[in-house]
Protein backbone atom coordinates (compact mmCIF):
# COMPACT_ATOMS: atom_id res chain seq x y z
CA UNK A 1 0.00 0.00 0.00
CA UNK A 2 2.68 2.47 1.08
CA UNK A 3 4.91 1.36 -1.74
CA UNK A 4 2.07 1.99 -4.18
CA UNK A 5 1.51 5.54 -2.96
CA UNK A 6 5.24 6.24 -3.09
CA UNK A 7 5.38 5.00 -6.66
CA UNK A 8 2.42 7.12 -7.70
CA UNK A 9 4.01 10.17 -6.06
CA UNK A 10 7.17 9.42 -8.00
CA UNK A 11 5.22 9.12 -11.25
CA UNK A 12 3.38 12.40 -10.57
CA UNK A 13 6.61 14.24 -9.79
CA UNK A 14 8.21 13.00 -13.01
CA UNK A 15 5.13 13.86 -15.07
CA UNK A 16 4.91 17.37 -13.60
CA UNK A 17 8.54 17.93 -14.44
CA UNK A 18 8.06 16.79 -18.04
CA UNK A 19 5.19 19.25 -18.60
CA UNK A 20 7.22 22.07 -17.06
CA UNK A 21 10.23 21.08 -19.15
CA UNK A 22 8.31 21.40 -22.39
CA UNK A 23 7.39 25.03 -21.63
CA UNK A 24 10.88 25.84 -20.49
CA UNK A 25 12.28 24.52 -23.75
CA UNK A 26 11.16 27.69 -25.53
CA UNK A 27 14.20 29.96 -25.42
CA UNK A 28 14.73 33.43 -26.74
CA UNK A 29 17.53 35.55 -28.16
CA UNK A 30 17.26 39.32 -28.47
CA UNK A 31 16.92 40.62 -32.03
CA UNK A 32 18.99 43.76 -32.22
CA UNK A 33 17.77 44.47 -35.75
CA UNK A 34 14.22 45.01 -34.53
CA UNK A 35 14.74 46.41 -31.03
CA UNK A 36 14.84 50.10 -30.22
CA UNK A 37 15.49 52.05 -27.04
CA UNK A 38 16.60 55.52 -25.94
CA UNK A 39 18.36 57.48 -27.30
CA UNK A 40 16.95 55.86 -30.49
CA UNK A 41 19.34 57.75 -32.78
CA UNK A 42 23.07 57.52 -33.37
CA UNK A 43 25.44 60.42 -33.94
CA UNK A 44 24.16 61.00 -37.50
CA UNK A 45 20.66 61.54 -36.09
CA UNK A 46 19.66 58.29 -37.79
CA UNK A 47 18.67 54.94 -36.45
CA UNK A 48 20.60 52.03 -37.88
CA UNK A 49 17.64 49.68 -37.79
CA UNK A 50 14.57 51.91 -37.94
CA UNK A 51 13.36 54.55 -40.30
CA UNK A 52 10.64 57.11 -39.62
CA UNK A 53 8.50 59.59 -41.50
CA UNK A 54 5.38 61.71 -41.66
CA UNK A 55 4.84 63.80 -38.54
CA UNK A 56 6.99 61.54 -36.35
CA UNK A 57 9.29 63.39 -33.98
CA UNK A 58 11.91 61.92 -31.68
CA UNK A 59 12.99 63.11 -28.26
CA UNK A 60 16.07 61.05 -27.64
CA UNK A 61 15.60 60.99 -23.86
CA UNK A 62 11.87 60.25 -23.90
CA UNK A 63 9.94 58.93 -26.85
CA UNK A 64 9.27 58.48 -30.54
CA UNK A 65 6.11 60.51 -31.06
CA UNK A 66 4.14 59.27 -34.08
CA UNK A 67 1.55 62.00 -33.70
CA UNK A 68 1.41 65.00 -31.43
CA UNK A 69 -1.78 66.09 -29.72
CA UNK A 70 -2.85 68.14 -32.75
CA UNK A 71 -5.45 67.52 -35.49
CA UNK A 72 -4.64 65.84 -38.81
CA UNK A 73 -1.32 64.22 -37.93
CA UNK A 74 0.15 61.03 -39.35
CA UNK A 75 3.44 59.40 -38.54
CA UNK A 76 5.23 56.11 -38.90
CA UNK A 77 8.23 54.14 -37.70
CA UNK A 78 9.36 51.05 -39.64
CA UNK A 79 12.19 48.56 -39.41
CA UNK A 80 14.71 48.87 -42.24
CA UNK A 81 15.12 45.12 -42.61
CA UNK A 82 12.43 42.43 -42.68
CA UNK A 83 11.84 40.19 -39.70
CA UNK A 84 13.38 36.89 -40.74
CA UNK A 85 12.84 34.95 -37.52
CA UNK A 86 10.30 32.14 -37.91
CA UNK A 87 9.07 32.44 -34.34
CA UNK A 88 9.28 35.65 -32.40
CA UNK A 89 8.07 37.81 -29.55
CA UNK A 90 7.79 41.59 -29.69
CA UNK A 91 7.31 43.65 -26.56
CA UNK A 92 6.52 47.32 -27.01
CA UNK A 93 6.19 50.06 -24.45
CA UNK A 94 3.94 52.82 -25.73
CA UNK A 95 1.94 55.71 -24.37
CA UNK A 96 -1.30 57.19 -25.66
CA UNK A 97 -2.20 60.40 -23.87
CA UNK A 98 -3.44 63.94 -24.37
CA UNK A 99 -5.07 66.94 -22.81
CA UNK A 100 -8.54 66.53 -24.30
CA UNK A 101 -11.58 64.66 -23.04
CA UNK A 102 -12.40 63.58 -26.59
CA UNK A 103 -9.47 62.03 -28.38
CA UNK A 104 -8.36 59.76 -31.22
CA UNK A 105 -7.69 57.94 -33.39
CA UNK A 106 -5.20 55.34 -32.26
CA UNK A 107 -1.99 53.46 -32.83
CA UNK A 108 -1.14 50.52 -35.09
CA UNK A 109 1.59 47.92 -35.07
CA UNK A 110 2.46 46.27 -38.36
CA UNK A 111 4.07 43.13 -39.73
CA UNK A 112 3.59 43.82 -43.37
CA UNK A 113 5.13 43.52 -46.79
CA UNK A 114 4.78 47.28 -47.19
CA UNK A 115 6.70 49.78 -45.12
CA UNK A 116 6.58 53.50 -44.49
CA UNK A 117 3.59 54.44 -46.62
CA UNK A 118 1.25 57.03 -45.18
CA UNK A 119 -2.42 56.22 -45.43
CA UNK A 120 -5.85 56.09 -43.80
CA UNK A 121 -5.40 53.05 -41.53
CA UNK A 122 -4.03 54.63 -38.35
CA UNK A 123 -1.68 56.64 -40.51
CA UNK A 124 -0.56 53.77 -42.72
CA UNK A 125 -1.50 52.41 -46.14
CA UNK A 126 -4.73 50.51 -46.69
CA UNK A 127 -4.97 47.16 -48.52
CA UNK A 128 -1.87 46.01 -46.79
CA UNK A 129 -0.52 42.48 -46.83
CA UNK A 130 0.28 40.99 -43.45
CA UNK A 131 -0.73 41.53 -39.86
CA UNK A 132 -1.98 44.76 -38.32
CA UNK A 133 -2.67 45.27 -34.61
CA UNK A 134 -4.80 48.33 -33.97
CA UNK A 135 -5.20 50.13 -30.66
CA UNK A 136 -8.33 52.05 -31.54
CA UNK A 137 -9.10 54.81 -29.04
CA UNK A 138 -12.00 56.44 -30.87
CA UNK A 139 -15.27 54.60 -31.34
CA UNK A 140 -16.58 55.50 -34.78
CA UNK A 141 -19.39 52.98 -34.79
CA UNK A 142 -19.29 49.75 -32.87
CA UNK A 143 -22.31 49.65 -30.58
CA UNK A 144 -21.91 47.71 -27.37
CA UNK A 145 -18.12 47.63 -27.50
CA UNK A 146 -15.96 49.32 -24.86
CA UNK A 147 -13.10 51.44 -26.18
CA UNK A 148 -10.10 51.55 -26.42
CA UNK A 149 -10.51 48.44 -28.51
CA UNK A 150 -7.50 46.38 -29.56
CA UNK A 151 -7.87 44.21 -32.64
CA UNK A 152 -5.88 42.25 -35.17
CA UNK A 153 -6.53 42.32 -38.89
CA UNK A 154 -4.93 39.98 -41.39
CA UNK A 155 -4.59 41.83 -44.69
CA UNK A 156 -4.45 40.02 -48.02
CA UNK A 157 -3.37 43.05 -50.04
CA UNK A 158 -6.90 43.60 -51.37
CA UNK A 159 -9.24 43.97 -48.40
CA UNK A 160 -9.90 47.44 -47.06
CA UNK A 161 -10.11 48.53 -43.45
CA UNK A 162 -13.38 50.32 -42.83
CA UNK A 163 -12.82 53.12 -40.33
CA UNK A 164 -16.54 53.91 -40.06
CA UNK A 165 -17.24 50.55 -38.42
CA UNK A 166 -13.87 50.35 -36.61
CA UNK A 167 -12.90 47.35 -38.75
CA UNK A 168 -15.59 45.08 -37.33
CA UNK A 169 -16.02 43.10 -40.56
CA UNK A 170 -12.29 42.35 -40.86
CA UNK A 171 -11.52 41.58 -37.24
CA UNK A 172 -9.33 38.51 -36.75
CA UNK A 173 -9.36 38.75 -32.94
CA UNK A 174 -9.58 41.51 -30.37
CA UNK A 175 -10.42 42.77 -26.89
CA UNK A 176 -11.52 45.87 -25.00
CA UNK A 177 -8.90 47.55 -22.85
CA UNK A 178 -10.59 50.18 -20.72
CA UNK A 179 -7.98 52.31 -19.00
CA UNK A 180 -5.20 51.63 -21.49
CA UNK A 181 -5.16 55.22 -22.73
CA UNK A 182 -3.74 57.63 -20.18
CA UNK A 183 -2.82 54.83 -17.74
CA UNK A 184 -0.57 55.90 -14.88
CA UNK A 185 1.70 52.87 -15.31
CA UNK A 186 3.87 52.10 -18.36
CA UNK A 187 1.58 50.52 -20.96
CA UNK A 188 2.93 47.63 -22.99
CA UNK A 189 1.90 45.05 -25.52
CA UNK A 190 3.51 41.70 -26.12
CA UNK A 191 2.85 39.84 -29.35
CA UNK A 192 4.08 36.26 -29.55
CA UNK A 193 4.09 34.26 -32.75
CA UNK A 194 4.96 30.61 -33.15
CA UNK A 195 4.58 29.47 -36.74
CA UNK A 196 1.69 26.99 -37.18
CA UNK A 197 1.26 26.90 -33.38
CA UNK A 198 -0.04 30.12 -31.92
CA UNK A 199 -0.40 33.86 -32.00
CA UNK A 200 -0.91 35.61 -28.69
CA UNK A 201 -1.40 39.22 -27.70
CA UNK A 202 -1.01 40.35 -24.11
CA UNK A 203 -1.35 43.84 -22.65
CA UNK A 204 0.01 45.53 -19.57
CA UNK A 205 -2.10 48.48 -18.44
CA UNK A 206 -3.69 47.57 -15.11
CA UNK A 207 -0.57 47.23 -12.97
CA UNK A 208 3.15 46.67 -13.57
CA UNK A 209 3.90 43.02 -14.26
CA UNK A 210 0.23 42.11 -14.74
CA UNK A 211 -0.30 40.89 -18.29
CA UNK A 212 -3.88 40.72 -19.52
CA UNK A 213 -4.50 38.28 -22.34
CA UNK A 214 -6.14 40.07 -25.24
CA UNK A 215 -6.37 37.07 -27.54
CA UNK A 216 -4.69 33.78 -28.25
CA UNK A 217 -5.24 31.50 -31.21
CA UNK A 218 -3.77 28.15 -32.14
CA UNK A 219 -4.52 28.89 -35.78
CA UNK A 220 -2.13 31.76 -36.41
CA UNK A 221 -2.25 33.60 -39.73
CA UNK A 222 0.60 33.23 -42.17
CA UNK A 223 2.97 36.19 -41.96
CA UNK A 224 4.46 37.28 -45.32
CA UNK A 225 7.95 35.90 -45.91
CA UNK A 226 9.22 39.43 -46.16
CA UNK A 227 7.54 41.40 -43.39
CA UNK A 228 8.68 44.66 -41.83
CA UNK A 229 7.90 45.57 -38.24
CA UNK A 230 6.34 48.98 -38.01
CA UNK A 231 4.18 51.41 -36.08
CA UNK A 232 1.95 54.25 -37.14
CA UNK A 233 -0.66 56.59 -35.73
CA UNK A 234 -3.16 59.12 -36.89
CA UNK A 235 -5.22 62.00 -35.55
CA UNK A 236 -8.24 63.55 -37.27
CA UNK A 237 -10.42 66.25 -35.80
CA UNK A 238 -9.67 64.69 -32.45
CA UNK A 239 -6.10 64.16 -31.39
CA UNK A 240 -3.70 62.52 -28.94
CA UNK A 241 -0.01 61.93 -28.46
CA UNK A 242 0.90 58.46 -29.72
CA UNK A 243 4.32 57.56 -28.38
CA UNK A 244 6.58 54.54 -28.77
CA UNK A 245 8.93 54.29 -25.79
CA UNK A 246 10.80 51.08 -26.56
CA UNK A 247 10.71 47.94 -28.68
CA UNK A 248 12.20 44.63 -27.60
CA UNK A 249 12.18 41.91 -30.25
CA UNK A 250 13.22 38.35 -29.55
CA UNK A 251 13.76 35.29 -31.68
CA UNK A 252 12.05 32.25 -30.14
CA UNK A 253 13.21 28.69 -30.63
CA UNK A 254 12.66 25.32 -29.04
CA UNK A 255 15.83 24.08 -27.39
CA UNK A 256 16.77 20.44 -27.86
CA UNK A 257 17.78 19.21 -24.38
CA UNK A 258 20.31 16.72 -25.82
CA UNK A 259 21.87 18.97 -28.45
CA UNK A 260 25.31 20.49 -27.93
CA UNK A 261 25.63 24.26 -27.94
CA UNK A 262 26.57 25.40 -31.42
CA UNK A 263 29.89 27.23 -31.77
CA UNK A 264 29.54 30.98 -31.55
CA UNK A 265 26.18 30.83 -29.78
CA UNK A 266 25.44 33.77 -27.53
CA UNK A 267 25.92 34.13 -23.81
CA UNK A 268 22.19 33.96 -23.19
CA UNK A 269 21.97 30.55 -24.76
CA UNK A 270 24.86 29.22 -22.74
CA UNK A 271 23.32 30.47 -19.51
CA UNK A 272 20.02 28.72 -20.23
CA UNK A 273 21.88 25.48 -21.04
CA UNK A 274 23.49 25.60 -17.63
CA UNK A 275 20.12 26.39 -16.10
CA UNK A 276 18.49 23.35 -17.65
CA UNK A 277 21.32 21.00 -16.66
CA UNK A 278 20.84 22.12 -13.05
CA UNK A 279 17.16 21.30 -13.49
CA UNK A 280 18.12 17.82 -14.63
CA UNK A 281 20.45 17.36 -11.69
CA UNK A 282 17.82 18.25 -9.10
CA UNK A 283 15.22 16.07 -10.80
CA UNK A 284 17.58 13.11 -10.67
CA UNK A 285 18.31 13.77 -6.99
CA UNK A 286 14.58 13.99 -6.28
CA UNK A 287 13.81 10.76 -8.13
CA UNK A 288 16.70 9.03 -6.36
CA UNK A 289 15.40 9.97 -2.89
CA UNK A 290 11.85 9.01 -3.82
CA UNK A 291 12.98 5.58 -4.99
CA UNK A 292 15.15 5.01 -1.88
CA UNK A 293 12.25 6.21 0.30
CA UNK A 294 9.86 3.86 -1.49
CA UNK A 295 12.15 0.87 -1.09
CA UNK A 296 12.74 1.65 2.59
CA UNK A 297 9.02 2.05 3.36
CA UNK A 298 8.18 -1.09 1.40
CA UNK A 299 10.88 -3.06 3.14
CA UNK A 300 9.79 -1.86 6.63
CA UNK A 301 6.19 -2.77 5.93
CA UNK A 302 7.24 -6.20 4.63
CA UNK A 303 9.44 -6.85 7.69
CA UNK A 304 6.67 -5.75 10.10
CA UNK A 305 4.13 -8.05 8.49
CA UNK A 306 6.70 -10.87 8.50
CA UNK A 307 7.31 -10.39 12.24
CA UNK A 308 3.57 -10.42 12.94
CA UNK A 309 3.05 -13.64 11.03
CA UNK A 310 6.07 -15.13 12.88
CA UNK A 311 4.62 -14.22 16.29
CA UNK A 312 1.23 -15.79 15.73
CA1 LIG B 1 -11.97 54.09 -34.55
State the gist of this model:
By secondary structure, the protein is of the alpha+beta class.
Task: Tell me what the structure shows.
This protein has two helices and 16 strands. By secondary structure, the chain is α+β, with helices and mostly antiparallel strands. The longest helix has 45 residues, at 267-311. The radius of gyration is 26 Å and the shape is elongated. Calcium ion binds next to loops. It comes from Chaetomium thermophilum (strain DSM 1495 / CBS 144.50 / IMI 039719). This is L-type lectin-like domain-containing protein.
Number of DSSP helices?
Answer: 2
At CATH level 2, the architecture of the largest domain is Sandwich
Average pLDDT works out at 86
The gyration radius over C-alpha positions equals: 26 Å
What keywords describe this structure?
single chain; 312 residues; alpha+beta; Jelly Rolls; 2 domains; eight-stranded antiparallel β-sheet; seven-stranded antiparallel β-sheet; 2 helices; 22% helix; binds calcium ion
Secondary structure blueprint with pairings:
Blueprint (H helix, E strand, L loop, with lengths): L1 H23 L1 E5 L19 E5 L2 E3 L3 E5 L6 E6 L8 E10 L8 E7 L5 E4 L7 E8 L12 E8 L16 E4 L10 E8 L3 E7 L7 E6 L10 E7 L6 E14 L12 H45 L1
Antiparallel strand pairs: 1-16, 2-5, 3-4, 4-16, 5-15, 6-12, 6-16, 7-9, 7-15, 9-10, 10-11, 12-13, 13-14
Helix pairs in contact: 1-2
This protein binds calcium ion.
Pfam families: Lectin_leg-like
GO cellular component, one term: Golgi membrane
Main location: membrane
